[in-house]
From TrEMBL:
<dbReference type="GO" id="GO:0005737">
    <property type="term" value="C:cytoplasm"/>
</dbReference>
<keyword id="KW-1133">Transmembrane helix</keyword>
<protein>
    <recommendedName>
        <fullName>(2E,6E)-farnesyl diphosphate synthase</fullName>
        <ecNumber>2.5.1.1</ecNumber>
        <ecNumber>2.5.1.10</ecNumber>
    </recommendedName>
</protein>
<feature type="transmembrane region" description="Helical">
    <location>
        <begin position="40"/>
        <end position="61"/>
    </location>
</feature>
<dbReference type="InterPro" id="IPR008949">
    <property type="entry name" value="Isoprenoid_synthase_dom_sf"/>
</dbReference>
<dbReference type="InterPro" id="IPR000092">
    <property type="entry name" value="Polyprenyl_synt"/>
</dbReference>
<keyword id="KW-0472">Membrane</keyword>
<dbReference type="GO" id="GO:0046872">
    <property type="term" value="F:metal ion binding"/>
</dbReference>
<keyword id="KW-0479">Metal-binding</keyword>
<keyword id="KW-0812">Transmembrane</keyword>
<dbReference type="InterPro" id="IPR033749">
    <property type="entry name" value="Polyprenyl_synt_CS"/>
</dbReference>
<dbReference type="GO" id="GO:0004161">
    <property type="term" value="F:dimethylallyltranstransferase activity"/>
</dbReference>
<dbReference type="Pfam" id="PF00348">
    <property type="entry name" value="polyprenyl_synt"/>
</dbReference>
<keyword id="KW-0808">Transferase</keyword>
<dbReference type="GO" id="GO:0045337">
    <property type="term" value="P:farnesyl diphosphate biosynthetic process"/>
</dbReference>
<keyword id="KW-0460">Magnesium</keyword>
<dbReference type="InterPro" id="IPR039702">
    <property type="entry name" value="FPS1-like"/>
</dbReference>
Length: 135
């Protein structure tokens, strides 16, 4: 099925983004910006756990790729993907915040490992914006 190949490609893209932007032995805060964050979230969290599950359920229930409705064509998979991207974004922000401020035994080491998180992106974006404004 094409959905599995598409999801595997998205997972590879996620891994590539993680490797390119978060070198373990080099911290480059200039790579951290809210401009890059949406792409990272889409590839990191949206496709595999969320979209694949929904798309497979839609496929199992024989929902077509598209169908006419009056004067327009409805594309259920595209519509589902746009909704799931928003849900994935909300989920990732919540997860990143809880990783930063959760109970000590449960705190993730994403920031220590130089990985993108909403908290680090937001902080770095704020610092760079203030620096651009000047004194």
């Amino acid at each position: 099925m094409l959905i599995f190949l598409e999801t595997m490609f998205q997972m590879e893209m996620r891994q590539l983004i993680d490797l390119i932007t978060a070198l373990e032995d080099e911290v480059d805060l200039s790579k951290f910006s809210l401009k890059n964050y949406p792409q990272i979230v889409i590839y990191k969290i949206t496709y595999y756990p969320f979209y694949l599950s929904v798309a497979l359920a839609m496929y199992m229930f024989h929902i077509p790729q598209f169908y006419p409705s009056g004067t327009q064509t409805i594309e259920p998979y595209t519509l589902a993907k746009s909704i799931i991207i928003s849900l994935g974004d909300c989920f990732q922000i919540q997860d990143d915040y809880l990783n930063l401020s959760g109970m000590p035994k449960q705190i993730s080491i994403d920031i220590i490992d130089n990985k993108f998180s909403w908290c680090s992106e937001y902080c770095a974006g704020s610092v760079y914006a203030r620096a651009a404004e000047g004194p």
